[in-house]
Amino acid sequence: MPKTALVVDNDFFFVEFLAELLESRGYKVIKAYDGKEGISAIDDKDIALMFADIVMPKIDGTELIKFVRMKYPENCFSIVAVSGTIIERIDTLTNIGADYYIAKGPMEKMAANINELLDNIENKSFDKSGGAKIIESENLFPRREAVDLLDSIQFHKGIIECVGFGIVNIDSDTRIIGINSYALNILGKTTIELLNRPVTDIFPHEDRSKFINTVKNFIKNNESNETVFTSIINSKKIRVVVTLLTVEKKILGLILALEDCDKWEELA
Fold this sequence. Notes:
There is one protein chain. This protein is an alpha/beta fold. The chain has two domains: 4-143, Response regulator (Rossmann fold, 3-Layer(aba) Sandwich), CATH 3.40.50; 163-267, Beta-Lactamase. The protein is 38% helix and 26% strand. It is built from nine helices and eleven strands. The strands form two sheets. It has a six-stranded parallel sheet with strand order 2-1-3-4-5-6, with helices on both faces. Strands 8-7-11-10-9 form a five-stranded antiparallel sheet. β10 (236-247) and β11 (250-260) form a beta hairpin. α2 (35-42) runs parallel beside α3. The longest helix has 19 residues, at 144-162. Keywords: Phosphoprotein. Residues 4-119 form the Response regulatory domain.
């Protein structure tokens, strides 16, 4: 029975390139085009190997890999991170949590590197005691623009993580694609329990219909920039501020801001 490999990348042509290479080696390939689709593909699948780009929309490769490590803490399949920004983040690369890292470059060189990597994985000839294996293409150098982009991404992630209330990012299909630590603490749940789950999973059953109706009326009437919903979660009164996530006047989803009313009343 062929082993199953999961390929996650928002570059369609790179997914096809990698899928063709893996299929030629006898793998059954599952394709996903962002981290959200990757999480859906992992559920109840017997995955032997995952290739994941690091920079992707919605749920990025770093969050996807973190999710996989938390979901399979004892017996995780091999994870290969691939990216065009491997060189730019070489100093902090191993914090991502993959087993192997491959820099994107010329396809012929990448094919040779990936085939060599697969030979070693299949023959179990890599010694992991020294940490993750980083495979760099020759003649690649850090680019100032890429470094600036990565710094900007990390800066904005830091703001979301450090702001003094919970932030939940909801995709257009009402599934959760991002949640900060403050929100996890308010809800008393883990990333595994919430990432790529319907937003209604946040609320107790008796409040779910009320929340859905509140959001429907908010979107339909479009009379203000936000709407407010209150729910009792884990015996705490939580104020939920709902806003539309819009980019260039296109609605991409929702942002929920969660505030612990009981905490603010204690501080007042």
